[in-house]
Amino acid sequence: MNNKRLFATILIFLLFLSSISFGQSISKPFVYGDLLPDAPELAARGEYAVGVQTLDLIHKNQLDILNYGKGEDSLYNRPLKVEIWYPTEAASNELISYDEVMGQNGSPTRPLIPFTFLGRATRNAKAVYEKEPFPLVIVSHGYTGSRYLMTYLTENLASKGYVVVAIDHTEATFRDAAGFQSTLLNRSLDDLFVLNEMARLSEDQESFLKGLVNADNTALIGYSMGGYGAVNVAGGGYSPQAVQLFGGMTGGSKALLRRSVGNPEFEASIDPRIKVIVAFAPWGMQRGVWNAEGLAGIKIPSLFVAGSKDDISGYEDGTKAIYEGAINSERYLLTYIDARHNTAPNPPPAEALEPGRPIDEYLRYADSVWDMRRINNINQHFVTAFLGFYLKGNETYKGYLDVNANPEAKEWPGFKPRTTIGLEMNHESPKD
């Protein structure tokens, strides 16, 4: 082969490699939580790479409400699987595959179908240990759902210096959905148990959480039934009407009475370690779960997020009514105009878009008006600002929340020009 032909062959080979590389850059996957061009400022990831681990917890001797009255004591050991995201020493965020299912346990029309989706974290990576431990964020999914329902947010917060633990609420996940009574009773109890477990593990010499997490400085984030639980944990005791409804469903009204307004046991259970809540589309107000006295019991800062056309939890008589009734809370209400219930989940997986799939698999994640990727970016922005100010005490974040402070401003702080269309933010200070 002469020199000219050799040079040409090498050139063609290099161009071939270049074309492969270029093609890969074009086809780079959009991972849940990645930024769209119009993402607001605080949606970007923070300074830390992210590690992730799975733990199996057991909440012993809990009331087995689904088998209430069938046994001598109706107690069981309640398993809870949790996923923990945290700052890591890993050099960068690598792609990770999460195992999930669509469908719903026990549904003849929605069989369980396994699928995977990508995130940006490193499994079992070594944690970063700073001089002070990181604040704790507990994340609670809806009915049905899973600990992976909001990875766009859990990974994002971990990258900003939080330890984030998301719960698989037993008998309320896609895989093991069972009677709704279990969710009504156990949601707030699961949250408080996980808080106690994180506090215990933060002192356990054998746990990677030792010295990593500060359970005394905790945020609780909940979506739908997760929001229902968050409102209760924050001090919103259930109403007598809710207790009666629960008793009629199960014969076990005493169980919910322990979490009701005015009950001394409930009042004693309000945990000062939980400093703030974020409630996405919290369920229950339309059903009379709270009254004015109950909502007045919320005394910690609260961020409520909802769609104005929410047909599951309601808006005017649902999330907005909770926001208006929480008169003793420093509170915000972020509204997605014309969105329905799905203001918190990841976008729909590719498998939900396949022809022949039940539309419910798509609608479990999607909104008919809003791009879920955009909702995700906006949630990342405002949750970052809310936790940054109220949990970490960083004053610079306050301006990102008080979007209406300057009537002359054309755009909200941190938003690109012409990108706040369809959004509304309300803010109220405590009554006294």
Automatic annotation (TrEMBL):
InterPro entries in the cross-refs: AB_hydrolase_fold, PET_hydrolase/cutinase-like
Keyword Methyltransferase among UniProt keywords: no
Coiled coil location: none
Keywords assigned by UniProt, alphabetized: Hydrolase, Lipid degradation, Lipid metabolism
Pfam families linked to this entry: PETase (PF12740)
Domain PET hydrolase/cutinase-like positions: 136-234
Protein name: Platelet-activating factor acetylhydrolase, isoform II
Species this protein is from: Algoriphagus winogradskyi
